[in-house]
Amino acid sequence: MSAVWASLRQTLMAVLLDRYAIVVMVGAVILYSFFYPAAYRHQVAGNLPILVVDEDHSATSRELLRRLDALRVAHVVGQPADIDSARQQLEAGHAEGIVLIPANLERDILRGHPAKLVLLGNGAYLGRASWVLGSVADALGAFGREAAVTQAAFMGAPQAPPVTLVQRPLYNTQEGYGSAIVPGVAELIVHQTLLMGIGVLLGGRRLALGRRLRFDLPTLAGMALGFGLIGLFGLFYYAGFTAWVQDYPRGGNPAGQLLGGTLFIAATVAFGLFVGSFFRTRERAFQYVIATSIPLFFLANLSWPTVMTPQPLVWLSQLLPTTSGINMMVRLTQMDADLADVGHELITLVVLLVLYGSLALWRLHGEITDRGRTRTE
Fold first, then answer.
1. pTM for the full predicted model
2. How far apart are CA 315 and CA 244, in angstroms?
3. Could you tell me which residues come within 8 angstroms of residue 336 by beta carbon, excluding any fewer than 6 positions away?
4. pLDDT tops 50 at residue 376
5. 368 pLDDT higher than 70
6. Among 52, 5, 65, 376, which Cα is nearest to 223's?
7. Mind spelling out the 3-state secondary structure of the chain?
8. Are 195 and 268 contacting, i.e. CB atoms less than 8 angstroms apart?
9. What residues form DSSP beta bridges with 367?
10. How many CB atoms lie within 10 A of CB 72?
11. Mean pLDDT (whole number) for 291-305
């Protein structure tokens, strides 16, 4: 047992003395806790660029253009001559949406005919597209209601609004960035920083020794315990202190968070030891782990239901600790879920702990003989 505690102390000291490891595993967690949630504090995006294609060139279309440019969420950055030019600019990333004002808009309104407006959005950034389309649609709806008054003055009787817009948000019903994204991303940040830290230490040690790493069981257990303590610090730092400071939903089921969070971090450490055993240099940890962050978040199916994801990707996602860990922690933290409600995630994390723990033992457990060869015990 003393060997385990000695290895635990050595692991913690290695993290503290390695500037790359301490920055990634501790510094990045604290830094993200202030800067990442603060960006979504107001739950909305603002001042996003849109394009307006005015084919009517009337007083009505100019009034509509003025209203669009006065929106807080969006502002008009250009008026292309045609829809093809506007679409090219949208695809190039110069704008988040396009409003097409067709020819004869004013004439149709004055004659009592239903007028049509076309609204297009860039779906590359789901949150931005939602707010641009929603805010512009509200402006168009208000314009349509006022146009009905103009119709009434010419037609002699109240007319139905010539422009009717119906909005029904699908998955993010509150239409807020923070409450929908930040709680899930917090678990992903802890997972990724922990993986990078483990990879940095293992890759750096392997590069220094010039051979494949091998550890006896007490040393390996102490390493896993040390990494796990750092991971738990980051996880509950986000679930407690950061959620309180940034005023995000918190509390929930504390006992369930402790059990579920421990299993999530344990599976992540096992996964990290297995993956990190393949890194020959510390730089590989940054290259591979950072590149997987966005795919891991989308595979967790927090942004949309699992039924919207191709089945092979759903099966693949079950092999990742983030899929069960993110959904489980969000439910336990924000929804006050019981352990029975997250039973599937708990069982999945136990299976992953056993799976990646066994693979980590296969890759890292052994001793060095006098001739420098490895021998698995």
1. 0.65
2. 35
3. 251, 252, 253
4. no
5. no
6. 5
7. CHHHHHHHHHHHHHHHHCHHHHHHHHHHHHHHHHHHHHCCCCCCCCCEEEEEEECCCCHHHHHHHHHHHCCCCEEEEECCCCHHHHHHHHHCCCCCEEEEECCCHHHHHHCCCCCCCEEEECCCCHHHHHHHHHHHHHHHHHHHHHHHHHHHHHHCCCCCCCCCCCCCCCCCCCCCHHHHHHHHHHHHHHHHHHHHHHHHHHHHHHHHHCCCCCECHHHHHHHHHHHHHHHHHHHHHHHHHHHHHCCCCCCCCHHHHHHHHHHHHHHHHHHHHHHHCCCCCCHHHHHHHHHCHHHHHHHCCCCCCHHHCCHHHHHHHCCCHHHHHHHHHHHHHHCCCCHHHHHHHHHHHHHHHHHHHHHHHHHHECEECCCCCEECC
8. yes
9. 375
10. 9
11. 81
**CA separation for the pair 56, 107 (Å, rounded):** 9
Dihedral of CA atoms 196, 197, 203, 206 in degrees, nearest 10, equals -160
> Residue 17 carries which side chain, given as an amino acid letter?
L
Give the β-pairing of 367-368 and 74-78. Answer: unpaired
| pLDDT tens sequence across 267-281 | 999 999 999 888 888
Contacts with 311 (C-beta within 8 Å, 6 or more apart), sequence order: none
pLDDT tens digits, 181-224: 777 788 888 899 899 889 888 988 888 888 888 888 888 889 89
